[in-house]
Specification:
Oligomer: single chain
Number of strands: 16
Distance between the termini: 62 Å
Helix content: 25-40%
Largest sheet: 12 strands, parallel
Radius of gyration: 27 Å
Strand content: 15-25%
Structural class: alpha/beta
Strand order of the largest sheet: 1-2-5-6-8-10-11-12-13-14-15-16
Number of helices: 17
Length: about 425
């Protein structure tokens, strides 16, 4: 006998319709719930679908399971949320999952996460090769997340699954993965033609030449997010991949740049042009070794074509304690000198220092001049944040005068009442 009951509305679902969003839908559809005390209220299918979707947003698994057992009309919508995401790791019951998803249920899975860590540490992952039958069942993956994967440790047949099985992926997230040969990673990116979001951190590969593989780029690249976070070796590889498309449109860009030459980043920003709405750049002292005079970065980091920029965040890590360094931290003013977006409303500048004297290396006068330009008349907020490293504090507290002194070094911004200066430990 089927476990599915006649399609009546259970009490927990009746309570759910008190949600204002559902009540609005009910009124717009002229829903009349029965007031007969001897019969259970019935809801139109579009209303129950909406309520099940609300349960799915917060993933109330118990309620979703109850919905799936209520009636045939609710089963499909409930499964959409119950089976939307699958996470695989060394502690997963892989045999059970293989048996479960060797069925039509695999078609409901839209997010696949593979984490090879054990207790937070990367571990051997031969088990991924052993679950190829399971990986092949997932044909509708839209979000793919890989954590601590070593690409070279996968058998070729397993690699081919990632390169051929998931063409619908639009959201790619990678953390602490090792591809060694960057061409292998670029081949993975090229195998995902519907990408809209690419985010990564802690990625490892050698700074090898990728010219040959870049010839296989698609004609156009259109992304909502390109986020290359901390501890990614050779981030210029990703900048070059993105910039080598004939047409580039990226709404939100974040790069944590270390010691690579910034020329590839500059090419990408020029190609992306007016499509860029938010830009975040993190750099440290090592960027200075590519320059011999203060204006040298102007040609590499040119934001003059990013005319639709709404928000800009610059993060400078100062590792060299030499106050008399003649080069200063001129990349900050170099970037600000190129701004030309009338839509820019927010600028955030974070400076991480070991000692306060490092702040003297920053050309505050130029920052004040560039951000007070009439071209940036729409600027409503400038935030300056000083991050003091605890390890180098010597037990001394934060200097309460620092925000005031920085404010005095930026008189034009202070006069416009758009400046906010703060400091904190890091």
């Amino acid at each position: 006998m089927s476990m599915l009951k006649p399609c009546v509305t259970p009490l927990f679902l009746c309570d759910a319709i008190n949600d204002s969003r559902v009540l609005s839908l009910c009124s717009s559809q002229y829903v009349g719930l029965r007031n007969d005390p001897f019969t259970s209220p019935r809801l139109p299918q579009e209303i129950t679908d909406k309520v099940i979707d609300l349960l799915g947003e917060s993933y109330q698994r118990t309620a979703l399971a109850a919905c799936s057992l209520t009636c045939h009309a609710w089963l499909d919508r409930s499964r959409v949320h119950i089976h939307s995401s699958v996470r695989l790791d060394p502690c997963s019951n892989l045999d059970h999952l293989t048996q479960l998803y060797t069925s039509p249920l695999a078609e409901y899975v839209r997010s696949l996460s593979i984490d090879v860590c054990v207790d937070g540490e990367p571990a051997e992952h031969k088990w991924i090769d052993e679950i190829r039958p399971l990986l092949r069942q997932f044909t509708r993956i839209e979000r793919l997340s890989l954590d601590a994967l070593v690409w070279a440790d996968l058998e070729n047949e397993t690699q081919q699954i990632f390169l051929t099985q998931y063409p619908l992926v639009s959201d790619l997230w990678l953390s602490t993965c090792d591809f060694w040969d960057p061409s292998e990673f670029l081949r993975l990116l090229q195998a995902l033609p519907r990408l809209e979001s690419v985010r990564m951190e802690g990625m490892v590969w050698e700074p090898e030449d990728c010219t040959d593989i870049l010839r296989h780029n698609a004609p156009a690249l259109r992304l909502r997010w390109l986020d290359v976070g901390d501890i990614c070796t050779a981030p210029h590889v990703i900048a070059k991949w993105a910039g080598c498309h004939r047409e580039v449109a990226i709404e939100n860009i974040h790069f944590s740049w270390a010691c690579d030459h910034p020329v590839d980043l500059g090419i990408l920003l020029k190609k992306a042009g007016s499509s860029v709405q938010t830009l975040s750049l993190t750099m440290d002292d090592r960027i200075q070794r590519w320059t011999t005079y203060p204006a040298a970065l102007c040609g590499s980091l040119d934001l003059s074509r990013n005319t639709e920029l709404r928000s800009l965040r610059l993060f400078a890590r100062l590792d060299t304690p030499n106050v008399c360094d003649p080069s200063g931290v001129f990349w900050l003013s170099n970037v600000l000198a190129q701004l030309s977006s009338p839509h820019l409303s927010e600028v955030s500048i974070c400076v991480e220092v070991k000692v306060y004297h490092q702040l003297l290396r920053i050309d505050w006068r130029s920052i004040d001049m560039y951000l007070s330009s009439p071209t940036l008349a729409g600027l409503k907020r400038v935030e300056i944040c000083v991050l003091r490293r605890c390890a180098f504090s010597g037990g001394q507290p934060l200097n309460p005068d620092v925000p005031r002194l920085i404010g005095e070094a930026l008189p034009k911004l202070s006069a416009r009442r758009v400046l906010d200066v703060m400091q904190q430990w890091t």
